[in-house]
Write a structure and sequence with these properties.
heterodimer, A: about 290 residues, mainly alpha, MetI-like fold, two-stranded antiparallel ribbon, 14 helices, about 75% helix, about 0% strand, B: about 290 residues, 2 domains, 17 helices
Amino acid sequence: MTWVRRGGLSTLVFLLPLLLVFGFFSWAPIVQSVVMSFQRTNLIGPAEFVGLDNFAQVLSDPLLWTALRNTVWFALLALLFGYPVPLVAAVLISEVRHRKGLFSALAYLPVVIPPVVAVLLWKFFYDASPTGVFNTALGWVGLGPWQWLQDPGSAMPSLVLEATWAAAGGTVIIYLAALAGVPADLYEAAEIDGSGIWRKVWHVTLPRLRGVLLVTFILQIIGTAQVFLEPFLFTGGGPANSTTTLLLLIYDYAFANSLGGDYGAATALSIMLAAVLALFSAAYFRLTRSWSAS
Amino acid sequence: MNRGLVSPTEWATARTRLVLRTLQGLLLGGLLLTGLGPVLWLAKAAVTPTQDTLRTPIALFPNGVDLTNLVTAWTRVEIDKYFLNTVWLAAGSWAVQLVVATTAGYALAVLRPRYGSLVTGVVLATLFVPSIVLLVPLYLTVVDANLINTFWAVWLPAGASAFNVVLVQRFFAGLPREVFEAARVDGAGPFRVFWSVVLPLSRPIIGVVSVFAVVASWKDFLWPLLVLPDPAVQPLSVRLPALQRYVELDVFLAALAISSVIPIALFLVFQRLFLNGGALEGAVKG
């Protein structure tokens, strides 16, 4: 009773929404996911434990290795297209003297457009006919028409191009905040030592940004490993499975079959993916923790 | 003096200034083309007849403006209904997220029960779990609870955002405790302190959580696709890909434009919130 009088009960009342919502829609499903990966479930009969069968089934699926290769390819292309551009843009924007806000607002605008709208719009831009939007522009400089999404070789780079366009603005904003935090006296000290602009970028700016660069790198890996929207809406995994990613495969296992999904395989694959990504998350948290301590 | 990488003396040299200005000019051009370009193109295409958009996609109104696209999309294609669904989904997700985050933040940061750090720990742990792990079991939970084709299937899971809880908890922990003590001495119970002291002081963080909740809900695709199979309750994001198959191109592009208006308007109004990196920094330093 003293517990109640000291306010224990009202504290619990305040925590109730969190406990209920997280309990039902976060903690329980996480545990259930692990359990289900060892079970064979169809929604009719009771679930039975099958040991590592689901994992074995997923690992022996030739499509898994295609999906893994495609996901890694997507991640690599995304790093190639999307990693240096925001950094260069942010360094240039941070030196803008008037209307800096206009630059960052323009850079961020694609992030605000709903992703589904962006993909459907780009799908139209990618029209493979000579009068497609991009092919028209290519025609002006004597190139094209390109096949874009229709060709197994160019489908994935096309997806990555749109994904990079959609996400780069967010990274620019993060870099701008980090650049604003570089102390001016470091630059002054470098100037006294006779450094030009390039040397200052190399010896002051980049080392000061190392932490942020690592964080955006990790965030990008975690994000691209879970790419779903672009392959799902642009190509549905085609042509010839050239854009089937891991998440698309999980979705197909669980939801594409109208006769009832293979939930065991879907959870097994998502648990394996999550285990790998957890390593990256852990690294991310260690890094950011040490920042707020310093 | 507020300076960055390039020193005032370097700015004074003609060559440096020329190079920098040129690079920045190129960047501005590129940003206008890639950032504003698609938005303007979509706005134009929304009021252009299909034949013009197909034949000369990068021309300015060769055969005039056709405002009927927008009207057709809004009425005959029932974009109004899906728009309203999207608004409802966003509003409910916003409400649930706000209730969970503020009550939990208050309990954990102000009332501070002994088991508080345990709760915080278990909430934080969910940040490590990619959402894909939740997909199948969460779907089955929603099926079991008979929530399929109800907005609750989207609203309630939206509340389980560890990011919100951390953000609000940190803000509440930074509020001056003397204010709570004073209110308590005046005889205010924990509910009164929450409602009349903490919430009014928390407008900035509530604003941040609100804007991001609405924008995130507007963007959401996969989850509503799974739990709202009935077109009558689907939001724009889910309905648009399906519409593409049987709606004429000009009307479809008008529908895309209508779907983008609210997020872009929110961005223009709350620009500083999106761009000053404050909230992002909070996320990065979580």
